[in-house]
Amino acid sequence: MINIPMEHALIVAILLFIIGLAGALMRRNLVYILLSVEIMLNAAGFAFVVAGARWMQPDGQVMFIFILTMAAAEVSVGLALILRIYHNLKTMDADDVSKIKPN
Amino acid sequence: MTVAFYISSVIAILSSLMVITRKNAFSALLYMIISLLSVALIFFILGAAFVAALEIIIYAGAIMVLFVFVTMMLNLGKEAEKLEKTWMRPRVWIGPSILALILGVEVILLIVSSEIGSLPGGEITPKEVGIILYGKYIIGVELAALLITAGILGAYHLGKRKALLQHRYLKEEKGGSL
Questions:
Q1: CB-closest option in A1, A79, A86 to B46
Q2: Predicted model pTM
Q3: How many CB pairs below 8 Å do chains A and B form together?
């Protein structure tokens, strides 16, 4: 963090988050939605690390480790759900999946 | 070092854009790995070497491999072999390879110019992170352990095949239910 302004790094984080959000809203394939959520989580962790590097505190990195843990747990459950949906419905489309009725 | 930061930022944004616009799932996954690698390089430049390593090991190494496994499982079928040939087409891997090459050249240049680690007091060592993680944030570590346990149980429960008994009555309906 010597000659890189914090604002530039934060702008990169914001852009990454916006890209992830746009992907989650535009794509209808479940795998892509999960990937976009990963991009968003990564951008949030990026912002934490940038802030930690700006003030020379290790707290930002600790928060990134927590986000990493959360992302790992989320992905394992999400992918298990996707596999289950595909085996039962033979579709990966989020709109098709939201049409099913609970029995 | 400043130039390296901007180059990897551009690569991160570019590859993230490619992730959400690709049709081929494998292409998207390759670009996602490139995006994570470039973010790891940015962490390295910012002096956070520990999380840079974690980003590569856990994100690119574990989570993305999980994605690749699931994508391959979903594509099993008659056309699997034909599909595998299409995955190997150059246009699937040429873009990510070029971006990875740029990142690799960047890393080599940074190491050769020995700018990494020469930040005057700018690096946060893994020791500091570990001390604060197991000191002030110990409750967070325990909650993370609970979360991981819940994740394991949830994935196991969802991945377990149910007996077909439940679905026998739903066979006639199109679509069925979860």
A1: A1
A2: 0.85
A3: 191
